[in-house]
């Protein structure tokens, strides 16, 4: 048994203080603001994270994390038996977040003291740039939809398990709705990819420049740039997959129970992010079978404990789906598959997408290197590890792409192992090819970023003018693009004003537009989705009930180019009267031609360029029925 250090005794004393505070009756504490309460939980457990981080090197990070988690759960559980106190799962989550964040900070400081400053300076620069860029870009429809997940916490959702929303929840709760609080997990994800590429590289290729090269590649390729700025379900998936990758490698080396449990927790968190994470299991199994040094682990309890832990964590998703007619499984494995059939077109589309997202040299260089040395690599533990965890997701989707379209970002979990293979290959091929690889990847990442910055810098008027002048799109479509990029905040303010004026409720015909306008709503008002939903985003079916608004006034926001005569005629029977608010420009002319009828009136409003794409329809005395007309 290892001797306990002073920091161990200090951590134990601190835990006793936390548990003692949990036993204080509610009347003795008084009341506090919710924000301060959450911050207090984070700060309190940041102190615990500070103490256990010094013990982690001696006793292992798995034990440190378990200590923080167990203390958080027990401290909240005790409050169930204290008068005036309640156990709050959200408080438990903030406790764990505070402790883990402090552990990460202390680990970074310790790394700097061990002369890893160049890597830390690179990561700090990257973090600053991505925070700036994440702040500049307006929220997208899918990102705003995931914010709705955070605002409607649940065990699972129609589209995917809910990890992306669960991670976002504390940031939205603490700091409100903003692009930074929504995208903070993505910005941090970029640091995780870079840091793990560096530290795995140090373990696999000590005494070489592979770690730094892998870290740079894992940071600058286009897929890393996307995952590190925009929010998607692939962001937590790639993070937990990569963390599980590092933990699994260490567990195979040391065969410690704590490392296997940690591996199972991380795999389970990946399962709770996206079903693509199931691919981790066959990759890990092949690694244990194909590498002779690892085969004895198949008879050991560790890997099976890890698998069992992951399944236990995933079980709430199964329970939720059982209660909701297996919505998530049906959507992912049946409904979205469409018509399957052999096609080289989808294969070449997928292959081209991977070359762009991972950059051509970052894929081709390791492929050539592996092809030349395949016989030797099949006997190498490190290369076999990287080949399997990069090849299973990339190769698996190659097979699927022969039968159906595959999203280019689906194989994002291969980022770090592919970056390590590329770094190892570049170590052999010299500095010139390394420079070409880095420059190519940086250029492919910078090109769309520069384009987005240029568009935002132009502003709505100049952007609309350039779209009409230098492209072949129509005036109506150019105004539509302008509205999407620049108009969300303005139209949300107008809709909020009309809602207050008519004492009504807000709605759109699209999950994407509803999510964006809810995000930008000045009062945080919720936008229902009324009408036939799109193929995606149908969790609104569970959130909204049109019948609850029967007899009220609906304020419906939409795009004028989609609001034609057929739409107006379709919705007219659902209201006693309709007033359409159009804005100056081509859409207003369009509305004047198409929006007419015995109970329909049109109001034209002078508005800036970014609002001309929209129309707002105010319908009196809503019938409370679902709309069968396609509005999305």
Task: Briefly characterize the structure.
The chain is mostly helical. The chain has 28 helices and 6 strands. About 1% of the residues have low confidence.
Please estimate the helix content: 55-70%
Question: Please, how many helices?
Answer: 28
Shape: globular
The overall strand count is 6
- How far apart the termini lie comes to 64 Å
Class derived from helix and strand content? mainly alpha
Strand order of the largest sheet: 2-1-3-6-4-5
Radius of gyration: 27 Å
Biggest pleated sheet: 6 strands, mixed
Determine the mean pLDDT. Answer: 82
Low-confidence stretches: 31-36
Provide the β-strand percentage band.
5-15%
Number of domains: 3
Keywords:
single chain, mainly alpha, 3 domains
Strand-helix topology:
Blueprint: H1 6-22, H2 26-29, H3 34-59, H4 61-78, H5 89-113, H6 117-136, H7 141-151, H8 163-175, H9 179-204, H10 210-220, H11 222-227, H12 234-254, H13 257-271, H14 280-290, H15 301-323, H16 327-333, H17 344-357, H18 360-372, H19 374-377, H20 381-401, H21 415-429, H22 431-470, H23 475-486, H24 488-502, E1 505-508, H25 511-520, E2 527-529, H26 540-543, E3 554-559, H27 565-571, E4 577-583, H28 586-594, E5 600-605, E6 614-620
Parallel strand pairs: 1-2, 1-3, 4-5
Antiparallel strand pairs: 3-6, 4-6
Helix pairs in contact: 1-3, 1-4, 3-4, 3-5, 4-5, 6-9, 7-8, 7-25, 8-9, 9-10, 9-12, 9-21, 10-21, 10-22, 12-13, 13-15, 14-20, 17-18, 17-20, 18-21, 20-21, 21-22, 22-23, 24-25
């Amino acid at each position: 048994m290892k001797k306990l250090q002073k920091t161990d005794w200090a951590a134990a004393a601190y835990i006793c203080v936390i548990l003692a505070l949990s036993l204080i009756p509610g009347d003795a504490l008084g009341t506090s603001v919710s924000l301060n309460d959450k911050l207090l939980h984070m700060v309190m457990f940041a102190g615990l994270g500070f103490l256990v981080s010094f013990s982690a090197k001696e006793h292992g990070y798995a034990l440190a994390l378990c200590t923080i988690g167990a203390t958080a759960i027990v401290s909240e559980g005790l409050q169930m038996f204290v008068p005036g106190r309640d156990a709050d799962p959200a408080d438990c989550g903030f406790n764990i977040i505070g402790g883990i964040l402090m552990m990460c900070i202390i680990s970074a400081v310790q790394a700097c003291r061990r002369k890893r400053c160049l890597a830390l300076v690179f990561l700090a620069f990257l973090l600053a740039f991505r925070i700036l860029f994440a702040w500049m870009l307006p929220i997208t429809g899918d990102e705003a939809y995931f914010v709705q997940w955070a605002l409607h916490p649940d065990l699972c959702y129609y589209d995917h398990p809910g990890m992306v929303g669960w991670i976002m929840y504390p940031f939205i709760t603490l700091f409100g709705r903003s692009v930074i609080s929504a995208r903070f997990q993505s910005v941090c994800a970029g640091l995780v990819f870079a840091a793990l590429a560096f530290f795995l590289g140090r373990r696999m290729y000590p005494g070489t420049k592979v770690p730094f090269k892998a870290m740079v590649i894992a940071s600058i390729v286009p897929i890393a740039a996307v995952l590190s700025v925009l929010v998607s379900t692939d962001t937590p998936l790639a993070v937990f997959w990569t963390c599980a990758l590092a933990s699994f490698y260490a567990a195979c080396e040391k065969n410690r129970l704590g490392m296997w449990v940690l591996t199972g927790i991380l795999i389970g968190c990946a399962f709770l992010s996206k079903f693509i994470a199931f691919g981790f299991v066959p990759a890990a199994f092949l690694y244990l079978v194909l590498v002779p040094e690892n085969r004895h682990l198949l008879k050991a309890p560790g890997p099976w404990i890890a698998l069992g832990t992951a399944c236990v964590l995933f079980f709430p998703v199964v329970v939720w789906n059982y209660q909701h007619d297996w919505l998530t499984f049906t959507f992912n494995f049946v409904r979205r598959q469409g018509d399957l059939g052999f096609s080289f077109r989808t294969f070449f589309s997928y292959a081209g997408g991977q070359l762009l997202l991972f950059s051509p040299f970052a894929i081709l260089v390791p492929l050539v290197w592996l092809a030349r040395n395949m016989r030797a690599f099949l006997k190498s533990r490190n290369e076999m590890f990287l080949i399997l965890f990069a090849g299973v997701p990339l190769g698996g989707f190659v097979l699927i792409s022969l039968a159906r379209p595959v999203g280019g970002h689906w194989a994002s979990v291969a980022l770090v192992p592919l970056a390590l293979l590329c770094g190892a290959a570049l170590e052999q091929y010299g500095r010139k090819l390394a420079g070409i690889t880095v420059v190519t990847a940086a250029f492919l990442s910078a090109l769309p970023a520069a384009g987005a910055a240029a568009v935002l810098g132009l502003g709505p008027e100049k952007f609309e003018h350039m779209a009409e002048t230098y492209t072949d799109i129509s005036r109506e479509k150019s105004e539509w693009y302008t509205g999407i990029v620049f108009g969300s905040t303005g139209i949300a303010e107008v809709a909020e004003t009309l809602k207050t004026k008519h004492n009504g409720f807000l709605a759109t015909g699209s999950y994407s537009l509803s999510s964006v306008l809810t995000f930008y709503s000045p009062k945080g008002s919720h936008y229902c989705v009324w009408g036939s939903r799109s193929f995606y985003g149908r969790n609104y079916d569970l959130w909204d009930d049109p019948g609850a608004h029967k007899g009220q006034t609906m304020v419906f926001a939409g795009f004028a180019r989609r609001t034609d005569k057929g739409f107006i005629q379709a919705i007219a029977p659902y209201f006693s009267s309709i007033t359409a608010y159009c804005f100056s420009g081509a859409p207003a002319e369009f509305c004047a031609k198409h929006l007419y009828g015995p109970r329909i009136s049109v109001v034209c409003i002078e508005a800036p360029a970014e609002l001309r794409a929209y129309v707002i329809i105010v319908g009196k005395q809503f019938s409370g029925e679902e709309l069968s007309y396609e509005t999305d």
